[in-house]
Amino acid sequence: MKNTLYKAAIESGxxxxxxxxxxxxxxxxxxxxxxxxEVDKKSETKIIEIIKVDFPxxxxxxxxxxxxxxxxxxxxxxxxxxxxxxxxxxxxxxxxSIGIEKxxxxxxxxVYNPMSGEMFFAEKGKGAFLNDEKISVTKENNLKKxxxxxxxxxxxxxxxxxxxxxxxxxxxxxxxxxxxxxAALDLCWTAxxxxxxxWEYNLHxxxxxxxxxxxxxxGGKVTDFKGGxxxxxxxxxxxxxxxxxxxxxxxLKSL
Length: 255
Ligand code: IPD
Ligand code: CA
Ligand code: CA
What we know:
CATH architecture of the largest domain: 2-Layer Sandwich
CATH superfamily of the largest domain: Fructose-1,6-Bisphosphatase, subunit A, domain 1
Distance between the termini: 42 Å
Bound molecules: D-MYO-inositol-1-phosphate, calcium ion
CATH topology of the largest domain: Fructose-1,6-Bisphosphatase, Chain A, domain 1
Radius of gyration: 17 Å
Strand content: 25-35%
Shape: globular
Helix content: 25-40%
CATH class of the largest domain: Alpha Beta
Number of strands: 15
Largest sheet: 8 strands, mixed
């Protein structure tokens, strides 16, 4: 599966990179600000084509086409471009993200930004890597010295003001906060140690499947906003180096 996973990320990444500087078709999805480009669709088609050659019997859950269900206990969870709005605006902070779940557990994850050449990979129990070099989260244990990252959902009517309240609670603590626009890269950059902690509301399994494994394999801690067991099918994520987790939880619980 590992070879197929790499092949799918590399080949779809080639498409994403090739179209980056060109003009491509952009459409709105459920709401006007939620975009899909023709490159998202081409990338998705390529990934699924590659998986189907080697593993026609596996399940697929992919952002643009949805679920292709089989009786297998293996599911490929695909975001053909995470950071589509960045991509549509030619901001090179976006990636292909593919996770593989077996019997409910993520066992492989790959996140590839073909514009920067950064390829993040993890296999359950075997560590996390950036371009084949082992990576790990930071050792910062003082939230006051931490650099945080977050994202804002396109649709937040079900959680009015929550994302902004959380943002402002951390701002009120005089903390620096970044917003990249790709949840998969937010997780990978936290796994790599560029950030100390990441939180976000209203994410989908394809945004986080690969990044979640990369974070945990890099020694990070991932929970929901109550500190409970994390699932990629739940909408809230708090992912940190583990050392500032409780302090961030305190803030999120207080909202
Ligand atoms: C989005 C990105 C963004 C996050 C949004 C996601 P997309 O995914 O991960 O960082 O804030 O909630 O939907 O639409 O670019 O695949
Ligand atoms: Ca996404
Ligand atoms: Ca996407």
